[in-house]
Automatic annotation (TrEMBL):
Top EC class, one word: transferase
Function: E2 component of the 2-oxoglutarate dehydrogenase (OGDH) complex which catalyzes the second step in the conversion of 2-oxoglutarate to succinyl-CoA and CO(2).
Domain of life: Bacteria
UniProt similarity note: Belongs to the 2-oxoacid dehydrogenase family.
Pathway(s): Amino-acid degradation; L-lysine degradation via saccharopine pathway; glutaryl-CoA from L-lysine: step 6/6
Encoding gene (name): odhB
Quaternary structure annotation from Swiss-Prot or TrEMBL: Forms a 24-polypeptide structural core with octahedral symmetry. Part of the 2-oxoglutarate dehydrogenase (OGDH) complex composed of E1 (2-oxoglutarate dehydrogenase), E2 (dihydrolipoamide succinyltransferase) and E3 (dihydrolipoamide dehydrogenase); the complex contains multiple copies of the three enzymatic components (E1, E2 and E3).
GO BP annotations listed: L-lysine catabolic process to acetyl-CoA via saccharopine; tricarboxylic acid cycle
UniProt source species: Paracoccus gahaiensis
NCBIfam families reported for this sequence: PRK05704.1, sucB
Required cofactor(s): (R)-lipoate
Biased composition (Low complexity): 255-273
Record-given protein name: Dihydrolipoyllysine-residue succinyltransferase component of 2-oxoglutarate dehydrogenase complex
């Protein structure tokens, strides 16, 4: 009996998808719900599970092809038996104190491909290999780590066998469809030497956490993390691993606290070369992309900034009055960001060009608000997106911003969570900034800069009073937004913040 594999439901308004990666090839045995391939749309990445157990008889849509909803992807012959790799030969018993180091190559060769990197990401850099050629690997065991301009990606082994060949060495730049390595299925690779009893005990003690007395001793930290720990002077027990099975990754080390600094070294002699006292560090892909995108924004958009200020007494008073009841009911603190998000959504309805973008010779107006919220991380600035923020409540916005911010700081944001924003808010006030001109986040046409709340003398009703004031800055693309629209937008944000009741009344 033959079962068809078709494109699953892609979601509202999504009319096509691209075949990103096939995890199986014709002739392979597949089980029910086992992942067959991955599709990419302009919004999400979709995994396609097997609808039946059997043999993958035919792949109809190859990698790179564009398919529509419900299109035929492949055919599965139910109950069929796929070709199995040759059985492993029985091993001769090794001497007690010797380690088997011979690599026997047998079975099929399986390519290790670059996994899906997400929409708009076309290349990655091979950061770290956790295995070397000739090593035995198990299915789903981490082989290497890639760095893109947005996230780090771990590459698991697609099958068990021997890592026969590494095609992309550390530091190499690879495209989204590149082959990284070759695994020989069913081969017996070099096994690690069996540790002595004392060594095994040391391994357990080294990896033991505060609530874990018998941790796994077979989890190896990323080599790049080991190097970073050594450079930073941080011990293994000071770092909380975020990788698979608790593996410490490079970014985990960046978040760890280093020990108190030692006494300052003697000052360099006055005749020492300046070059000898410099440190040269290669920019990460994320930092390179931030630099490129910011410069592109300046070069492409006709960027202009308009300023205003807001008396935050109204928001602060309302927040103080209801913060305890709000937290008790919604299990989240009431912050300032939800007020700013709601105020911007309100203003964008009146001035829709600030929520638009240029596409060639067209202006695309967005009838929704996907609000980008800039978050500073150890690796650089990232902008996760609160989708349909105009339809969310204060509590929903606070919860989502909190969750996205935590993911950003931990380096766990997915590609989908950082794409599709229509407008951005950047809060330089958390770092003490009193005034700044934010740079646009292309292709968006507007970004609002929040700043430090500072008490200043203000004239109110002919009297000088002290008020908590905040400078606001709207940078906008003058190709889309006229000065009148930009000023109107910022005035509406100011009005909503100074009298938050206007948000309830839609005024």
């Amino acid at each position: 009996m033959t079962t068809e594999v078709r494109v699953p439901t892609l979601g509202e308004s999504v009319t096509e998808a691209t075949i990103a990666t096939w995890f199986k090839k014709p002739g392979d045995r597949v089980e029910v719900d086992e992942m067959l391939c991955e599709l990419e749309t302009d919004k999400v990445t979709v995994e396609v599970p097997s609808p039946a157990a059997g043999t993958l008889a035919e792949i109809v849509a190859a990698e790179g092809e564009t398919v529509g909803p419900d299109a035929l992807l492949a055919q599965i012959t139910e109950g069929g038996e796929a070709e199995q790799p040759a059985a492993k030969p029985a091993k001769a018993e090794a001497p007690a104190d010797k380690t088997e180091d011979k690599t026997t190559m047998s079975g099929n060769s399986v390519d290790v491909m670059v996994p899906s990197l997400g929409e708009s990401v076309t290349e990655a850099t091979v950061a770290t290999w956790f295995k070397k050629a000739g090593d035995r690997v198990e299915a789903d065991e981490m082989l290497c780590e890639l760095e893109t301009d947005k996230v780090s990606v771990e590459v698991p082994a697609p099958t068990a066998g021997v890592l026969a060949e590494i095609l992309a060495e550390e530091g190499a730049t690879v495209d989204a469809k590149a082959r990284l390595a070759v695994i020989t299925e069913g081969a017996a690779g070099a096994a690690p030497a069996k540790p002595k009893a004392s060594d095994a005990q040391d391994t357990v003690l080294e990896n033991a956490g505060p609530e874990e007395m018998t941790p796994r001793s077979d989890v190896e930290d990323a080599p790049s993390a080991k190097k970073a720990m050594a450079e930073k002077g941080v011990s293994r027990d000071q770092v909380q691993g975020s990788g698979r099975d608790g593996r410490v990754m490079k970014e985990d080390v960046a978040k760890a606290q280093a020990p108190a600094p030692k006494a300052a070294a003697p000052r360099a002699p006055s005749n020492a070369s300046d070059a000898d006292r410099e440190e040269r560090v290669k920019m990460t892909r994320l930092r390179q992309t931030i630099a490129r995108r910011l410069k592109d924004a300046q070069n492409t958009a006709a960027m202009l900034t308009t300023y205003n200020e807001a008396d935050m007494s109204g928001v602060m008073g309302l927040r103080n009055e209801y913060k305890d009841a709000f937290e008790k009911k919604h299990k989240v603190k009431l912050g300032f960001m939800s007020f700013f998000v709601k105020a911007c959504c309100h203003a964008l309805k009146e001035v829709p060009e600030v929520n638009a973008e240029i596409d060639g010779t067209d202006v695309v107006y967005k009838n929704f608000v996907h609000m980008g919220v800039a978050v500073g991380t150890p690796s650089g600035l990232v902008v996760p997106v609160v989708r349909d923020a105009d339809q969310k409540s204060f509590a929903e916005i606070e919860k989502e911003i909190g969750a996205l911010g935590l993911k950003g700081r931990d380096g766990k944001l997915s590609m989908a969570e950082m794409q599709g924003g229509t407008f951005t808010i950047s809060n330089g006030g958390v770092y003490g900034s009193l005034m700044s001109s934010p740079i646009l986040n292309p292709p968006q046409s507007g970004i609002l800069g929040m700043h430090k709340i500072q008490e200043r003398p203000m004239v109110v009703g002919g009297q000088i009073v002290i008020r908590p004031m905040m400078y606001l800055a709207l940078s906008y693309d003058h190709r889309v937004v006229d000065g009148k629209g930009a000023v109107t937008f910022l005035v509406r944000v100011k009005e909503a913040l100074e009298d938050p009741r206007r948000l309830l009344m839609d005024l």
